[in-house]
Amino acid sequence: MSKRKKQKQNTEEEGPQILGRFSGNLKMGLVGISSCGKSLTYDVLSRKQVAKEEKQDLNMKKKKENQFEARCLLQDPRHDFLTNLYEPKKTTPTYLLVQDFDSFGESSSGFDNSMLTAIQSVDGFFHVVRAFSSRTIHHPLGSVDPVRDMEIVENELIQRDIQGIIKKIASLEKQLRNIKDLKKNEDLQMLKVFKKYLEEKNLPIRQGKWNNKEIFFLNTLALFSSKPVVYLINISVKDFKRKGNKHLRQIMEWIKKRTNEPIIPFCPVYEDELFYATEEEKEKEGFKTVIPKIISTGFTRLNLITYFTVGKDEVKSWKCRKGSNAPQAARVIHTSLEKTFIAAEVFHYNDIFELGSEQKVRKAGKFRREGKKYIVKDGDCIEFINNKTSTTKKKK
Ligand SMILES: Nc1nc2c(ncn2[C@@H]2O[C@H](COP(=O)(O)OP(=O)(O)OP(=O)(O)O)[C@@H](O)[C@H]2O)c(=O)[nH]1
Ligand SMILES: [Mg+2]
Question: Which residues does UniProt call coiled coil (predicted)?
Answer without folding.
Answer: 155-189
